[in-house]
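Just wondering, does anyone understand what follows?

——
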Amino acid sequence: MDEVKQSLLDNCNGLLTFKIAGLDFCTDMANIVEIINPVELDQEENINSENPHVNLGVLKISIIDIYSMFGFLPKERTKDDRIIIIETENQFFGFVVEKISNIYSLDKELKSEIEFVSCTGLIHLAGILKFRKKDLFYLDFLSVVSDRLK
Protein backbone atom coordinates (compact mmCIF):
# COMPACT_ATOMS: atom_id res chain seq x y z
CA MET A 1 0.00 0.00 0.00
CA ASP A 2 1.51 3.37 -0.95
CA GLU A 3 2.04 6.23 1.52
CA VAL A 4 -1.05 8.24 0.54
CA LYS A 5 -3.39 5.29 0.94
CA GLN A 6 -1.80 4.28 4.23
CA SER A 7 -2.08 7.84 5.53
CA LEU A 8 -5.74 8.01 4.50
CA LEU A 9 -6.58 4.90 6.50
CA ASP A 10 -4.30 5.75 9.43
CA ASN A 11 -5.97 9.15 9.86
CA CYS A 12 -9.51 7.82 9.47
CA ASN A 13 -11.18 7.16 12.83
CA GLY A 14 -14.72 6.86 11.55
CA LEU A 15 -16.20 5.59 8.32
CA LEU A 16 -19.66 6.45 7.00
CA THR A 17 -21.13 4.10 4.39
CA PHE A 18 -24.04 5.17 2.20
CA LYS A 19 -25.73 4.61 -1.15
CA ILE A 20 -25.83 6.76 -4.26
CA ALA A 21 -27.71 5.43 -7.30
CA GLY A 22 -27.77 2.00 -5.69
CA LEU A 23 -23.96 1.85 -5.38
CA ASP A 24 -22.03 1.57 -2.11
CA PHE A 25 -19.94 4.59 -1.12
CA CYS A 26 -18.01 5.59 1.97
CA THR A 27 -16.19 8.58 3.39
CA ASP A 28 -14.22 9.64 6.43
CA MET A 29 -16.38 11.03 9.25
CA ALA A 30 -13.83 13.79 10.06
CA ASN A 31 -15.53 16.69 8.24
CA ILE A 32 -19.13 15.56 8.70
CA VAL A 33 -20.96 17.80 11.14
CA GLU A 34 -24.48 16.46 10.77
CA ILE A 35 -26.67 13.97 8.95
CA ILE A 36 -30.18 15.25 8.35
CA ASN A 37 -33.44 13.64 7.37
CA PRO A 38 -34.80 16.08 4.72
CA VAL A 39 -38.40 15.03 5.42
CA GLU A 40 -38.08 16.49 8.94
CA LEU A 41 -36.88 19.83 7.51
CA ASP A 42 -39.99 20.37 5.38
CA GLN A 43 -37.90 22.31 2.84
CA GLU A 44 -38.56 20.28 -0.31
CA GLU A 45 -38.97 23.43 -2.43
CA ASN A 46 -35.51 24.65 -1.31
CA ILE A 47 -33.85 21.27 -1.95
CA ASN A 48 -35.39 21.01 -5.43
CA SER A 49 -34.84 24.67 -6.41
CA GLU A 50 -32.50 25.96 -9.12
CA ASN A 51 -29.94 26.67 -6.35
CA PRO A 52 -30.56 23.75 -3.98
CA HIS A 53 -30.07 24.53 -0.31
CA VAL A 54 -31.43 23.99 3.17
CA ASN A 55 -31.81 26.50 5.96
CA LEU A 56 -30.57 25.40 9.36
CA GLY A 57 -31.10 28.18 11.84
CA VAL A 58 -29.25 31.19 10.44
CA LEU A 59 -27.19 29.04 8.04
CA LYS A 60 -28.09 28.63 4.37
CA ILE A 61 -26.32 25.42 3.29
CA SER A 62 -25.78 24.78 -0.41
CA ILE A 63 -26.64 21.30 -1.64
CA ILE A 64 -24.17 19.88 -4.16
CA ASP A 65 -25.74 17.48 -6.65
CA ILE A 66 -23.48 14.43 -6.62
CA TYR A 67 -25.87 12.46 -8.80
CA SER A 68 -25.29 14.64 -11.85
CA MET A 69 -21.60 15.00 -10.97
CA PHE A 70 -21.20 11.24 -11.50
CA GLY A 71 -23.62 11.12 -14.44
CA PHE A 72 -26.41 9.36 -12.52
CA LEU A 73 -30.03 10.12 -13.32
CA PRO A 74 -31.97 12.06 -10.70
CA LYS A 75 -34.12 9.91 -8.48
CA GLU A 76 -37.37 10.27 -6.63
CA ARG A 77 -36.95 11.28 -3.01
CA THR A 78 -37.69 8.59 -0.43
CA LYS A 79 -38.01 8.44 3.34
CA ASP A 80 -34.50 6.91 3.48
CA ASP A 81 -32.80 9.94 1.86
CA ARG A 82 -30.35 11.82 4.05
CA ILE A 83 -28.37 15.02 3.68
CA ILE A 84 -24.75 14.76 4.77
CA ILE A 85 -23.52 18.16 5.98
CA ILE A 86 -19.78 18.78 5.89
CA GLU A 87 -17.71 21.74 7.03
CA THR A 88 -14.57 22.99 5.39
CA GLU A 89 -12.86 26.33 5.91
CA ASN A 90 -15.85 27.62 7.94
CA GLN A 91 -18.28 26.86 5.11
CA PHE A 92 -21.02 24.24 5.13
CA PHE A 93 -22.18 22.09 2.21
CA GLY A 94 -24.78 19.34 1.92
CA PHE A 95 -24.97 16.19 -0.19
CA VAL A 96 -28.16 14.16 -0.66
CA VAL A 97 -27.63 10.39 -0.51
CA GLU A 98 -30.17 7.56 -0.82
CA LYS A 99 -29.50 5.89 2.44
CA ILE A 100 -27.00 5.77 5.27
CA SER A 101 -25.87 2.17 5.54
CA ASN A 102 -23.53 2.18 8.55
CA ILE A 103 -21.26 4.27 10.71
CA TYR A 104 -18.09 2.53 11.85
CA SER A 105 -15.67 3.62 14.54
CA LEU A 106 -12.39 2.40 13.08
CA ASP A 107 -10.04 0.83 15.55
CA LYS A 108 -6.85 -1.03 14.61
CA GLU A 109 -8.71 -4.34 14.27
CA LEU A 110 -11.36 -2.95 11.87
CA LYS A 111 -8.70 -1.10 9.86
CA SER A 112 -6.92 -4.42 9.34
CA GLU A 113 -10.05 -5.73 7.57
CA ILE A 114 -9.89 -2.96 4.95
CA GLU A 115 -8.10 -3.36 1.65
CA PHE A 116 -7.51 -0.09 -0.20
CA VAL A 117 -7.52 -0.32 -4.01
CA SER A 118 -6.31 2.46 -6.29
CA CYS A 119 -8.93 4.25 -8.32
CA THR A 120 -7.17 6.28 -10.99
CA GLY A 121 -8.99 8.43 -13.47
CA LEU A 122 -12.18 8.82 -11.47
CA ILE A 123 -12.56 12.34 -10.18
CA HIS A 124 -13.45 12.83 -6.48
CA LEU A 125 -12.87 9.17 -5.64
CA ALA A 126 -9.86 8.48 -3.43
CA GLY A 127 -10.09 4.77 -4.12
CA ILE A 128 -12.12 1.68 -3.43
CA LEU A 129 -12.25 0.08 -0.01
CA LYS A 130 -12.83 -3.65 0.11
CA PHE A 131 -14.50 -4.07 3.46
CA ARG A 132 -16.75 -6.80 4.81
CA LYS A 133 -17.37 -8.38 1.39
CA LYS A 134 -18.28 -5.04 -0.21
CA ASP A 135 -16.53 -2.71 -2.61
CA LEU A 136 -17.04 0.82 -1.30
CA PHE A 137 -16.24 3.83 -3.49
CA TYR A 138 -14.33 6.21 -1.21
CA LEU A 139 -15.84 9.63 -1.97
CA ASP A 140 -13.70 12.66 -1.17
CA PHE A 141 -16.27 15.34 -0.28
CA LEU A 142 -13.51 17.91 0.32
CA SER A 143 -12.31 17.44 -3.27
CA VAL A 144 -15.88 18.00 -4.51
CA VAL A 145 -16.19 21.21 -2.50
CA SER A 146 -12.74 22.40 -3.57
CA ASP A 147 -13.71 22.03 -7.23
CA ARG A 148 -17.00 23.79 -6.60
CA LEU A 149 -15.24 26.77 -5.02
CA LYS A 150 -12.82 27.25 -7.94
